[in-house]
């Protein structure tokens, strides 16, 4: 965790933004896998709780009473039976003091605090819950049924948290650079291990081990697949085959829970075919275009659309698309190849703050999400600001079921050469992803070195 002044300052800012009422930030509990004492491991704290209270243990709740200017860390100390099995852990008082919180209280006090606040008709601010145990707790404390909790969550608290967590502090950027180092090791190891005959699962397992060894865990379930056209394709027991491309999308979390998220796509045998290069170079150009145009004040929505135009132009040159580029992109025809968005915010959550509602994280009064297939999956559209961290991740995919569906229904028929696509149905998919820090007048990748992505660099790396 950071110095306690970090947490004191953050809570002060939060109080000024939310203005009045009482804020309840719920920490996470252990999450059982197949029986209560076999929980998913390691424990993962809620990111907003971590951001304001820093304490990385289950069963904690943070209270910020704005009107009375008090802060309380709620939680029970563990007893001797727990110490026998798990060893001693910091007391709730120690954890509170490490985050500059003056008061502590046992868990049973929480019900009393909530009852008083309800009785006095005070504004009670909580974030949208995403785990059922917390939903049941909120029902018990505040009487709000789980299916109403999302809409009853505090909009002013959501907006304040988004405002603060979107702009990364210098020490957070340094953590993200550390997360990059773990991601670099994962990706370069994957390239070294890739060869015909090895299973996808073997390599993904090695990568997960690296994330566990150098940080806290993977920042999301590792994608390592020869079926790159499946956007979140889980690794299988399939063995790698020469001639195929493999797509690796993975990242690690530091001990302080800051993430990395990168994607590389490369040939199993370490040498691209011309057909693979034709498609790869389009994704590469789209990925690099972002570096030229992303800077404070620019709408991320426009950056996404610029990449779509570039890809459509190049797919036309290859004979896979046709017609007017502007019209094609306006109609959404390019989404047959790119059905997802260009990128998302990244920080402590790999899709940063997604649980607070993408509409508040990625959009605002000025820019609303599209309802079109493909562009509608863009998680971030609003104007970008200095010290935002966003992923730059264009891709081109040949999804046989989607191609057949569009062809049968005539979707995009004025802009897509369906006949030419027949030869690409076993191609797979390509994505290239890096994490981008928006700087004062432009942007740069997180990390001081490059995970190879230019074809020549990949081939040189894989054949060394
Ligand atoms: Mn990503």
TrEMBL record:
Coiled coil: none annotated. The keyword Membrane does not apply. Transmembrane segments: none annotated. It catalyses: Release of any N-terminal amino acid, including proline, that is linked to proline, even from a dipeptide or tripeptide. Its EC number is 3.4.11.9. Residues 2-135 form the Aminopeptidase P N-terminal domain. Keywords: Aminopeptidase, Hydrolase, Metal-binding, Protease. GO terms for molecular function: aminopeptidase activity. InterPro entries: Aminopep_P_N (IPR007865), Pept_M24 (IPR000994), X-Pro_dipept-like (IPR052433). The keyword Metal-binding applies. It comes from the Bacteria. Belongs to the peptidase M24B family. This is Xaa-Pro aminopeptidase.
């Amino acid at each position: 965790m950071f110095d306690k002044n970090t947490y004191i300052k953050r809570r002060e800012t939060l109080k000024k933004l939310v203005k009045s009422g009482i804020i309840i930030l719920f920490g996470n509990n252990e999450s059982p896998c197949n029986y209560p004492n076999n929980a998913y491991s390691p424990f993962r704290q809620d990111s907003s709780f971590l951001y304001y209270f820093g304490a990385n243990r289950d069963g904690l709740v943070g209270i910020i009473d704005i009107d009375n200017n008090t802060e309380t860390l709620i939680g029970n100390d563990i007893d001797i039976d727990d110490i026998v099995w798990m060893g001693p852990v910091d007391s709730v008082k120690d954890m509170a003091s490490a985050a500059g919180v003056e008061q502590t209280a046992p868990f049973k006090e929480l019900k009393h605090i909530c009852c008083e606040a309800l009785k006095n008709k005070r504004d009670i601010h909580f974030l949208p819950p995403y785990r059922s145990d917390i939903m049941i707790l909120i029902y018990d404390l505040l009487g709000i049924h789980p299916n109403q909790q999302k809409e009853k969550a505090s909009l002013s608290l959501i907006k304040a948290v988004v405002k603060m967590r979107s702009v990364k502090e210098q020490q957070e950027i340094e953590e993200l650079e550390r997360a990059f180092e773990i991601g670099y090791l994962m990706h370069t190891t994957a390239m070294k291990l890739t060869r015909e005959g090895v299973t996808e699962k073997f390599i993904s397992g090695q990568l997960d081990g690296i994330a566990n060894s150098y940080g806290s865990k993977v920042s999301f379930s590792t994608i390592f697949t020869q079926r790159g056209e499946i956007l979140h394709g889980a690794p299988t027991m399939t063995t790698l085959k020469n001639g195929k491309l493999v797509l690796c999308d993975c990242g690690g979390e530091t001990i302080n829970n800051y993430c990395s998220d990168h994607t590389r796509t490369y040939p199993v045998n370490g040498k691209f075919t011309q057909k693979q290069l034709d498609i790869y170079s389009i994704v590469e150009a789209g990925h690099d275009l972002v570096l030229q145009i992303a800077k404070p004040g620019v709408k991320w929505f426009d950056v996404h659309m610029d990449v779509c135009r570039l890809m459509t132009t190049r797919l036309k040159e290859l004979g896979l698309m046709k017609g007017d580029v502007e019209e094609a992109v306006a109609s959404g025809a390019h989404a047959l190849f790119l059905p997802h968005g260009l990128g998302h915010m990244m920080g402590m959550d790999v899709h940063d703050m997604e649980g607070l509602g993408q509409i508040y994280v990625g959009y605002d009064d000025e820019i609303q999400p599209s309802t079109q297939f493909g562009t509608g999956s863009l998680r971030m559209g609003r104007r970008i600001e200095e010290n935002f961290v966003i992923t730059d991740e264009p891709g081109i995919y040949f999804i046989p079921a989607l191609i057949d569906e569009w062809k049968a229904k005539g979707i995009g028929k004025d802009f897509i050469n369906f006949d030419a696509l027949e030869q690409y149905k076993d191609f797979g998919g390509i994505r290239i992803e890096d994490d981008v820090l928006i700087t004062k007048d432009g942007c740069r990748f997180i990390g001081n070195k490059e995970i190879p992505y230019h074809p020549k660099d990949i081939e040189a790396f894989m054949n060394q």
